[in-house]
Design goal:
The chain is mainly beta. It has one helix and 21 strands. It is about 5% helix and about 45% strand. A hairpin with a 2-residue loop joins strand 5 and strand 6.
Length: about 220
């Protein structure tokens, strides 16, 4: 089970198991992780756990939320990430089952580039999948989904992820500059919950359209 270790000036205060879908952090007593400090907003941030991946989201706090020294709005957490809220440090520890790479950087896609033979490479693994870019500068490009998490979109505009799990491939919204605009799955905007993908599904993120295909 993933957990958060809360400390102040290198002195550990308490450990918290992330045993719920959502864990809130803030100054109010109604939060799951309460930090009684004026630099911490009443409802400062939250951690959402979905399919063994954890995502940290700032809830419009006054002083911001930092991960490894960088101000964030919403970000996937990797094992060992250091979260700073006010003067407090919260370290995220994933269990061995969840310590796989998450969203390391916000790129257009974080899959490896192919030599144009992406389908042949994906076919080596009967449980693998590919995406084909349908528009834009990379139209026609085929990318194998070889990593546990592949991000799609444009930094600062809209980011989504395709997550590879034993149950299949799931499509999940990460962040959008315009909160009223979300990635689309078969032309329908997706919600907060991951969507199980089927071969032939069409995905649109930040104006980029791709077709998901199982090999």
């Amino acid at each position: 089970m993933p957990k958060i270790v809360l400390s102040l000036e290198e002195n550990m205060i308490r450990e918290f198991d992330l045993d719920k879908e959502e864990t809130t952090i803030g100054r109010r007593s109604t939060n799951d992780i309460q930090i009684q400090n004026l630099a911490v907003s009443g409802r400062h941030a939250r951690i959402k756990v979905a399919l063994d991946d954890a995502f940290l989201e700032d809830l419009g706090s006054t002083n911001g939320t930092y991960v490894n020294g960088r101000l964030i709005k919403k970000q996937a957490l990797n094992d060992g990430d250091e979260i700073i809220i006010g003067k407090y440090k919260l370290v995220y520890y994933a269990t061995p089952a969840t310590a796989e790479p998450a969203l390391s950087s916000m790129l257009h896609t974080n899959t490896d580039e192919t030599d144009g033979d992406g389908q042949a490479k994906a076919a080596e693994n009967p449980n693998s999948a590919i995406i084909e870019v349908k528009n834009g500068a990379k139209a026609g490009q085929i990318l194998p989904l070889q990593k546990p998490v592949t991000t799609l979109g444009r930094p600062g505009i809209q980011i989504a992820a395709i997550m590879k799990k034993p149950e299949g491939y799931f499509f999940m919204h990460i962040e959008s500059e315009d909160e009223d605009s979300r990635p689309r799955h078969n032309q329908a905007e997706i919600g907060e919950e991951p969507v199980l993908l089927s071969s032939g599904d069409n995905l649109t993120v930040a104006g980029i359209s791709v077709e998901f295909m199982l090999s």
